[in-house]
Amino acid sequence: MEQQLAGEVEMLRYARQLKLLGEEGQQALKEATVMVAGIGGLGGTAALYLAAAGVGKLILAHEGIIVPPDLNRQILMDHDHLGMERMSTAVAQLKRLNPHVEIEGYNSRIELEAARPWVEQADIVIDARYDFPERYALNRLCVQTGTPMVEAAMYGFEISLTTMIPGETACLECLYPDIQQDWEPLGFPVLGATSGIAGCLAALETVKWITRVGAAYAGVMHRFNTLDFACYSVHVTRNPDCACCNQGR
Questions:
Q1: Contact 243/177 with Cβ under 8 angstroms?
Q2: What does the pLDDT look like over 127-159, one tens digit per residue?
Q3: DSSP structural state of residue 182
Q4: Reading across the β-sheet that carries 124-127, which strands appear in turn?
Q5: Rounded CA gap, 137 and 112, in Å?
Q6: Where are the alpha helices (DSSP H) in the chain?
Q7: Beta-sheet pairing, 149-155 with 124-127
Q8: How far apart are the first and last CA of the chain?
Q9: CATH number of 32-156+179-215
Q10: Which residues pair with 154 in a beta bridge?
Q11: Is residue 207 a contact partner of residue 53, using CB atoms and an 8 Å limit?
């Protein structure tokens, strides 16, 4: 069932972006469901700007409680909620920002069977998880369900971004066929502003995909170093031997 823009209230809220997206684009956002896997510095920023933009439904997944090292970058969290569940705090913050957005929040890691119904509901997924096992699980679910995935990551001062379209572009396992054993998920260096830029780029890519305003960054990996603003893009192709997206072909 289509959700219609709620008259003057929402038209005023989105007045400035309507100049860019048009009413048709804004309506497409209203009708869209986006899953954001991870609501830390990157995913939390993406969720914030998607809620602000008027996405109709957000499905969020991230486990755990708020701890002091979160607070340099996780803008949906705050000092007064230290020790409390991360997800409930994030959902409350987003609802305060935009009560028109429907939000499902799950205090959970990404696991194949648990996350399947969330991915199945989504029109597009943002991968903002901090470890490779969860990223691989999410990638496999997106391939199985045919759901586009914005793959966004950062480490130190560097940001990586691409959009993966099952059956058309490389999937995550095409690019990284082996689990990254040297990844340090609980202690990698991060500056809040860098993860925030990555989250904004992921949100922008998602809005572009939903509204068809501009071209999605599909089949291309963009790298951006926030320390010196150096950037480059490389074309990425499917691996014919990929154990995920080419299995059984």
A1: yes
A2: 999 888 999 999 999 999 999 999 999 999 999
A3: T
A4: 102-106, 57-61, 33-37, 124-127, 149-155, 158-164, 220-225, 230-235
A5: 6
A6: 7-13, 15-31, 41-53, 86-97, 112-121, 132-145, 172-175, 192-211
A7: parallel
A8: 36
A9: 3.40.50.720
A10: 159
A11: yes
**Which tokens sit at 117?**
């119904």
Distance CA 15, CA 5 (A): 12
- Residue located via tokens 């969020």: 60
What span, in angstroms and rounded, lies between the C-alpha atoms of 217 and 209?
9
Distance between CA 120 and CA 136 in Å, rounded? 16
**Domain range annotation of the chain:** 32-156+179-215
CA count, 13 A, side-chain hemisphere, 70: 28
- Amino acid letter at 71? L
Amino acid identity of residue 111, one-letter, is: E
Which residue carries 């409350």 as its tokens?
92
pLDDT per position as a tens digit, 193-214: 999 999 999 999 999 999 999 9
Q: What parts of the chain have a pLDDT lower than 50?
A: 1, 248-249
Contact partners, residue 80, CB within 8 Å, separation at least 6: none
